Amino acid sequence: MSSTGDSAVNGGSGAEPIRRRKDAQRNYDRLLSEARTVVAERGSDASLEEIARRAEVGIATLYRHFPNRTELIRALYEQSLAGLMASSSDIFAAPSAWEGVARYVERVAEWLIDDPGLPSIIVYMGTADAGYRPGAAIEAPLAALIARAQADGELRPDVNGVDVSILVTMLGVLSSYNRPGKPATIDWRRQLGIVLDGLRAENVRTELPGTPLDADGFHHAVHKN
């Protein structure tokens, strides 16, 4: 029998590499899943050994996928951000600019609230990598959406995209009151309603002090290096 026939009988010369790739992907996915749980419980400085143990792999396997803590936390952040972007296409297709702003605030706040470890992940990356700016792609579309809502007379005229993003982050901090596997203790949508009403042009009562940060200024403010 030819060597080609032998390969077919034995599963093919590519069978073993394919199996290894599948095993590697399974380990990668399991590590990310367990890392997200552990970070939610213990913060971004959680034990890497504990993450590997829960994923049922050795610490060497963890380091093969993620050479250091920063790369593991970065992978968690990017996985979360990809999920947010995939579910947010309707923000910029809303029937009105105000509705788009409201959807943005609600969707991003929900994203933060639903993953109690995410605020810790964001803070960690702000310290570990000063050049890391995964949300840059949304800055211009958000600014344009806000300008439209202001031109329509729906959004108060003295706020910008950074103001809105800071408010969303403040809502996201409420996730710290929730713990994995336990019922939520705070109905954050109450605070969401207050925030949205405060952004409406018709409700302006107080002149905002100071000068709003632009996107670059905000980036530098939250990065420690």
TrEMBL record:
Q: Which residues bind DNA?
A: 47-66
Indicate yes or no for the key word GTP-binding: no
Q: Where is the signal peptide?
A: none
Q: Which InterPro entries match?
A: Homeodomain-like_sf, HTH-type_TetR-like_transc_reg, HTH_TetR, Tet_transcr_reg_TetR-rel_C_sf, TetR_SbtR-like_C
- Provide this UniProt record's keywords sorted from A to Z: DNA-binding, Transcription, Transcription regulation
Per the record, the domain of life is Bacteria
Q: Which PROSITE patterns match?
A: HTH_TETR_2
A Pfam family annotated for this chain is TetR_N
GO terms for MF: DNA-binding transcription factor activity; transcription cis-regulatory region binding
Where are the stretches annotated Disordered? 1-20
Every copy of the HTH tetR-type domain together lies at 25-84
The keyword DNA-binding is annotated on this UniProt entry: yes
Q: Sorted alphabetically, which PANTHER family does this protein's record hold?
A: HTH-TYPE TRANSCRIPTIONAL REGULATOR BETI, HTH-TYPE TRANSCRIPTIONAL REGULATOR RUTR
The name on file for this protein is: TetR family transcriptional regulator
